[in-house]
Amino acid sequence: FELERLGVHESVDAVFPPAELAAFLADLSIDVAVVDDDGIDDCDAAVTLVYREAFLELDWIHSIQAGFDRFPRAVLEDHDVILTNSAGIHDRTVGETVAGYVLMFSRRLHDYVANQQERRWVRPEWDEGFTLPGSTACVVGTGTLGSGVAETLGALGVRVTGIRRSGDPVPGFDEVYASDRLLEAIGDADFVIVTVPLTDETHHLFDAETFDAMRDDAYFVNVARGSVVDEPALIDALEAGELAGAALDVFEEEPLPESSPLWGMDEVIVSPHAAAYTRDYFRDVGEIVRENVKRLETGAEFTNRVV
Ligand code: NDP
Questions:
Q1: What is the pLDDT of residues 11-38, one digit of tens each?
Q2: Residue 107 — φ and ψ, nearest 5°?
Q3: In whole angstroms, what is the distance from residue 161 CA to residue 137 CA?
Q4: What is the ipTM of this complex?
Q5: Which of 23, 90, 162, 208 could form a disulfide with 142, with the two C-beta atoms 3.0–4.6 Å apart?
Q6: Whether residue 254 lies in the annotated active site
Q7: Is the CA virtual torsion 112, 191, 158, 284 positive or negative?
């Protein structure tokens, strides 16, 4: 297709200022502009966070997220719209966020932050704090996110196991298991970290049975998508003391409703779907878009193509 005008949809503003990305791409030979829903009509392609029906008139949509569960893939295919995503850029950001959660639990930092709000000088129980060497993290999903988590936790001395469908080895993981050994692998872990895409197969992959297979002293971390977890089953497991705690970046309903019991739990860390946030996010997305504009010019296959 012929690309003359690329719109940076205003919805990306939830993650970075759209004008920053437009400026970053200004040296391309095409016209790049920040657009709202009405402005989409004049574009051939859009970089966006959200999906709109009006995008079906475009030739190409680029998602600023790695997950593409919000885009109707079959409909896009029917309308000959190319969809590309931003997989491949979230290794270090999400890896460092997960390392942060793990250190907060092991070194009890979340307790100090909570106590500080009330000017309370309280030391942990003698047997609460621990160090990471000798502990095991099982990372469910060994792609970009999983590999970033393996790298940061590995550097802290954690033994890292992984789960993927094939079970084939992945650099950075001490051991990788196929999905059918999930219960066995998580039963052996101090930390279980979810980094799979949301698909029909992974919807509610973590339910009462999976939480039951985890150790009572294990921590659960979800940086993937809320619906990979049966949230009421997680809340039940936490309330019953069947898990030590959880760090959650994603939820079945976002923003997490004020009425959710997760907000009030001492051993739960809630972050607002921001595990990958960084001041360089627009540059990382921009590099993928730039590469594909170049490939379009030379007739090469797109990178990060999903549809
Ligand atoms: P990748 O495609 O790089 O990795 C996905 C991994 O999941 C692959 O290793 C794949 O391995 C594995 N996988 C897929 N299906 C299954 C399954 N049914 N059972 C077990 N493993 C499976 O994606 P990313 O790492 O970039 O992103 C993963 C997800 O994380 C995204 O889809 C998105 O939803 C979420 N995300 C969240 C962010 C946040 O801000 N919290 C930021 C970025 C992403 P194999 O093919 O061998 O099974």
A1: 999 999 999 999 999 999 999 999 999 9
A2: -100, 5
A3: 6
A4: 0.99
A5: 162
A6: yes
A7: negative
